[in-house]
Amino acid sequence: MSITSTSPDTKNPANSSEPLRPKRFAGLGGQNLSLIGALLLVLVLFGTLNENYLSLSNMQVIAEAATITGLLAVVQTVVIICGGLDISVGSQVGVASVVSAMVFTGTGSNAVVGMLAAIGVGVLVGVVNGLVIVYGRVNPTIATLAGLAAYKGLAQLLSDGRAQGYVLSNDFFVFLGRGKIAGLPVMVWILVVTALAVHLMLKYTDIGRNLYAIGGNDTAARLAGININKYLIAVYALIGVVAAIAGILLTARTGSGQPVSGSEGLELKAITAAALGGCALKGGKGSIGGTLLAVALLGCLENGLTVEGINTFWQNVAQGALLVIAVVIQQRRSGERAVGLPH
Description:
Blueprint: H1 23-26, H2 29-49, H3 56-81, H4 89-106, H5 111-134, H6 140-159, H7 171-178, E1 180-181, E2 184-185, H8 186-204, H9 206-216, H10 218-223, H11 228-254, H12 266-276, H13 288-307, H14 312-334
Antiparallel strand pairs: 1-2
């Protein structure tokens, strides 16, 4: 049995407190319009500072660099919508990257077996996260924070802390990491297909409506007959699968299995993108379109700072600041009072 989402996105515009917008922009929403404006500002700013910033080759670099973050942000959006969180996604990518390369090497350069092994490990760690949260009754933030440390340690134990294998001798790995279809990198196509599939699931299926319902009001969802435990475990398993795909792409892009390099910090980027894209961290609200816009904004900002030679430490400062700003905006829009302050 399903119930309709109570996400604010589905409210009657006549009852909304948001300012009226022209009809041609009504479908975008205020959050997305703000992101588009910020993205254009970043493009104009860095395009003015550096004439090569807006070149086709640099746009391709930005797209490829944002792919792995984008994949994780898409599934982070799903788990946040249903009221959860996964801080361990970066470490999951590291485990999958190492496993894909080590199994590839150990099976006589069999790319398919290496990738299937990585996806299998992804499902396993995702289900473990879900079981700990559901049956261990551990807060998702604490459970996946433990996973962040545990899976990072596992990747380092498996690889002895070093990059493993060499996959660029295999045509399929090369195709994944460096190939193009219709002029776009294969990695970008994988992100597009994944994002589209998740968007369609959230918007047009009972599964998606039930996920919004769980995040919006889990008690009402339970009374409506939704098996919340099953959904949560399935969502964390989905995160494991997509994190494994991201790990495989990391291996294909770098040429070897990376236990930490390339995956560390991805969890913060994914959560920041989801929050900037309009996900309510308390659950029940969010969209894939908004998340992808936020991924594009973060990717363009990071690349612009790099092109201008700005210290990478400032990129971390900017990321943290954007996450705080996104949460503050959410709190203001929700009308919730500040902690410790009078009504």
